[in-house]
Design goal:
B: mainly alpha, globular
């Protein structure tokens, strides 16, 4: 596969931590325009932090994060908000506004950021909802939706203003197999149809490898592997192999560091 | 040994005091941020009116019922005390002055902090915990302008109106007990009240107090919600802090304002 040469997101030599704990170490990553890139890794490996750095919710201490040619490190809030109007983000649990209906959730940004006539907003909103198969659910409140439906509404909301860059935080977490497949295909289709660039943070290997163009594997804050889905599937790296096949034994320990079992249970040798 | 324990104790008190002062400073900075981002609340006044409904109109029942009971108790206690001096006809003055100067603004504010303040904190805190505020930020919408400022102004507008209604209802309660139940002369009740209550010094000062309480409660409630840790314990702790801090702030501010008002602001 040939990727476009221009990068929408560029991260170079990034180090980031909370207090004294370093979460990301020496990250170098690029997301070419129009591509769908996955950042994978175990829970707590720093991938959501990486996504928040790309979205400007966190600022890099060391290294640079560049989006659409603009460095986010010291960007003022006015410029950041201007840049964010070109972004969309799908949160892990949807983050729908619970006091607004499905329709108003999707139309929210159009009401806030545009002066479009209500009739145009109405048509655009229904088109967005139709794209995720939920035009018929426009009058429902978020509390009346299943997890999969809420994720689809959030997807329609994230793409409401046709952003250039769409960030997905664990879009597959907690979904049933049917919703999972539907969301995966929707992400791919929305990316291709609108010409957007997408970054997915996920630990769902099988679904992601079906739809993405490129994968970065993060472990303990470091990129340990990267490549196209084909390269990843055929990788012989122990970390990638363990992750892809979900094996308990491998470089990534299942157990959190702990004292010996017999010491914890106070067992004495007979 | 005992000396060390004493020093440790003093250190803990000092540390606690510093944290309180630090938090007060953070609330003031947050209040400044709200004021800077308030233009939207007035440009799109519908957002603020909606919050006046949630904070004010939905607090009406508790305010009116409490006002009625407080007024009735004042009528009873006032009559009982005043009749010892043969001045039971002045019970209307006692009820009205107690309510418009002190009890109306203060009790209405305490009820408002418990009813609406805690609700504002819980709502903003839960919006934060469910990433709704982050989602708004990612949509390039400032949550302080869109979520916090309308709630703040909704509280500030509601508070004086609720305090006035509390006082009015209290006077009705006092009338019911003193005149209807006990039999104080209705003419004396109303005429003495009319001659003793001064619009500028009593009613306006009462409104000023409730306005200040409204600013304090709304600032504390929105701050605690916005700064709440995004967990169940975090939101519940923030809600408790709103009620406790607001109540203490109301009583402390009442003392300061009353002192200034009795002195005449100069």
């Amino acid at each position: 596969m040939t990727l476009p040469v221009t990068n929408l997101v560029e991260i170079s030599n990034l180090n980031f931590g909370y207090s004294s704990r370093l979460v990301l170490k020496g990250i170098n990553l690029t997301v070419p325009k129009g591509s769908l890139v996955a950042i994978m890794g175990l829970s707590g490996c720093g991938k959501t932090t990486l996504l928040r750095l790309i979205g400007g919710q966190l600022r890099a201490h060391d290294g640079t994060v560049t989006v659409a040619g603009q460095c986010l490190n010291h960007m003022n809030s006015k410029d950041l908000y201007a840049l964010r109007r070109r972004m969309g983000m799908l949160f892990q649990f949807g983050a729908l506004f619970t006091d607004l209906s499905v329709y108003n959730n999707v139309a929210y940004q159009m009401h806030e950021h545009t002066r479009l006539p209500e009739s145009v907003i109405h048509d655009l909103t229904l088109m967005k909802l139709n794209a995720v198969g939920l035009r018929g659910a426009q009058a429902l409140m978020p509390s009346e939706l299943s997890g999969g439906m809420a994720r689809r509404v959030a997807l329609a909301r994230a793409t409401a203003l046709d952003p250039e860059l769409i960030l997905y935080d664990e879009p597959f977490a907690g979904l049933d197999p049917i919703s999972l497949g539907v969301i995966g295909q929707l992400i791919r289709r929305l990316n291709d149809a609108s010409g957007a660039t997408s970054v997915i943070v996920t630990h769902d290997v099988q679904e992601s490898l079906k739809i993405v163009d490129y994968v970065y594997f993060v472990s303990e804050g470091v990129i340990v592997a990267q490549g196209t889905p084909e390269q990843i599937r055929s990788s012989t790296l122990p970390f990638v192999h363990q992750f892809i096949w979900g094996e308990a034994d491998g470089p990534m320990p299942f157990h959190y560091p702990a004292p010996k079992m017999k010491d914890d249970l106070d067992l004495r040798s007979a | 040994m005992a000396q060390n324990a004493l020093i440790r104790g003093l250190q803990q008190v000092g540390d606690h005091a510093l944290k309180i002062v630090e938090r007060m400073g953070a609330v003031m900075i947050f209040l400044g941020l709200i004021l800077v981002h308030s233009a939207n609340s007035f440009r799109r006044f519908g957002l603020t009116i909606r919050e006046v409904y949630f904070a004010g109109v939905q607090s009406l029942i508790i305010i009116l019922v409490s006002g009625l009971f407080v007024g009735m108790v004042l009528g009873l206690q006032g009559y009982e005390t005043l009749q010892n001096y043969g001045s039971e006809q002045s019970v209307g003055i006692l009820v009205a002055l107690s309510l418009v100067r002190e009890l109306g603004p203060v009790v209405a504010a305490l009820l408002f902090a418990s009813r609406a303040g805690s609700a504002i904190t819980a709502e903003i805190g839960l919006m934060k915990a469910t990433e709704q505020l982050s989602a708004m930020e990612m949509m390039a919408i400032n949550p302080i302008a869109r979520v916090v400022a309308p709630r703040f102004w909704g509280g500030v507008i509601s508070m004086p109106l609720l305090a006035m209604l509390f006082s009015a209802m209290g006077i009705v309660g006092g009338f019911l007990v003193a005149v209807v139940l006990i039999g104080v002369d209705a003419g004396a009740f109303w005429s003495q009240m009319q001659s003793a209550v001064d619009f500028r010094h009593d009613i306006v000062n009462g409104i000023i107090k409730s306005l200040v309480f409204g600013v304090a409660i709304s600032a504390i409630a929105t701050f605690e919600g916005y700064e709440a840790p995004p967990t169940a314990e975090g939101v519940s702790g923030a809600t408790t802090r709103t009620v406790v801090s607001s109540s203490l702030a109301i009583l402390a501010l009442d003392l300061v304002l009353t002192a200034f008002m009795l002195k005449g602001w100069n």
